[in-house]
Amino acid sequence: MKAGSPKRRLGDLVFSNLTRAAGLTILVALAGVGIFLLAQGAPGLTAGKEDLRGHANFLSYVAPLVFGTLLAAVLALLIAVPLALGVALSISHFAPRRLATVIGYLVDLLAAVPSVVYGLWGIGVLGPKIVPLYEWLDKHVGWLPFFAGPYSNTGRTILTASIVLALMVIPIVTAITREIFMQTPRLNEEAALALGATRWEMIRLAVLPYGRSGIVSAAMLGLGRALGETMAVALVLSASNVVTWNLISSTNPSTIAANIALTFSDATGTARNALIASGLVLFVITFVVNFAARAIVARYEPGRKK
């Protein structure tokens, strides 16, 4: 210990070492998962047609799965983030305190619902109920490639799966943004109101800029949840492992996680290695998303020079 430096208490030393050990444990576990995926998935990268369900090579096999994974996750995020921001703002700035507390508890409870329950609800309730909407979209805006017919009579489409994913993402985004909005300096809000700003103008000028990095973080966490979701998508989606922008057709792209869940039990040999290799691709995609999120959050941190 350097001369003149304050003496560290035993409790501080124990706590700092425990936190350091916890961080190292996470790194070791993450490295172990990556090594396993790389070692077990490597043989699948050179698998033949018989192990890749008729595809010529691994790239042509995994490309539609990557497309479906990103499409479903982005659609879910486009639906979830505006709704989550609205709910978070209503809890933090609009609803009466008692009502806001109840709403907050109910939103938090949504995060505790198992994904298989969301999947069963999507296939048993949402799918059949949303078919008339698909029929309307096919009839009136079918000239758009997103809603070109024929529409699905069962409602088991990529759009239905995305709506279910959005419901699963909303609690995460809402919880984080709610806490960020409630931490907005009260003086900033009062100053905006004192200058004659309306409630919405105060939120637009004081609350949203303050919580910008938190909103990005919440959205990226929600995106990570949507990318890796398995059972809900596997139950709802009628997948065909194709690349298509049609959101209401019965011919849908599958996702990496759903494809692994549906086919892993029957796969053997190199075919199983190919599924593990696709899991490695999802692992890399998640890593890239998280690193991009960290870069965006760091850029918009308060006080950081642009």
UniProtKB/TrEMBL annotation:
<feature type="transmembrane region" description="Helical">
    <location>
        <begin position="21"/>
        <end position="41"/>
    </location>
</feature>
<dbReference type="InterPro" id="IPR000515">
    <property type="entry name" value="MetI-like"/>
</dbReference>
<keyword id="KW-1003">Cell membrane</keyword>
<keyword id="KW-0472">Membrane</keyword>
<feature type="transmembrane region" description="Helical">
    <location>
        <begin position="61"/>
        <end position="87"/>
    </location>
</feature>
<dbReference type="Pfam" id="PF00528">
    <property type="entry name" value="BPD_transp_1"/>
</dbReference>
<feature type="transmembrane region" description="Helical">
    <location>
        <begin position="99"/>
        <end position="121"/>
    </location>
</feature>
<feature type="transmembrane region" description="Helical">
    <location>
        <begin position="274"/>
        <end position="297"/>
    </location>
</feature>
<feature type="domain" description="ABC transmembrane type-1">
    <location>
        <begin position="66"/>
        <end position="293"/>
    </location>
</feature>
<dbReference type="GO" id="GO:0005886">
    <property type="term" value="C:plasma membrane"/>
</dbReference>
<feature type="transmembrane region" description="Helical">
    <location>
        <begin position="158"/>
        <end position="177"/>
    </location>
</feature>
<keyword id="KW-0812">Transmembrane</keyword>
<protein>
    <recommendedName>
        <fullName>Phosphate transport system permease protein</fullName>
    </recommendedName>
</protein>
<dbReference type="GO" id="GO:0006817">
    <property type="term" value="P:phosphate ion transport"/>
</dbReference>
<dbReference type="GO" id="GO:0005315">
    <property type="term" value="F:phosphate transmembrane transporter activity"/>
</dbReference>
<dbReference type="InterPro" id="IPR011864">
    <property type="entry name" value="Phosphate_PstC"/>
</dbReference>
<comment type="function">
    <text>Part of the binding-protein-dependent transport system for phosphate; probably responsible for the translocation of the substrate across the membrane.</text>
</comment>
<keyword id="KW-0813">Transport</keyword>
<dbReference type="InterPro" id="IPR035906">
    <property type="entry name" value="MetI-like_sf"/>
</dbReference>
<dbReference type="InterPro" id="IPR051124">
    <property type="entry name" value="Phosphate_Transport_Permease"/>
</dbReference>
<keyword id="KW-0592">Phosphate transport</keyword>
<comment type="similarity">
    <text>Belongs to the binding-protein-dependent transport system permease family. CysTW subfamily.</text>
</comment>
<keyword id="KW-1133">Transmembrane helix</keyword>
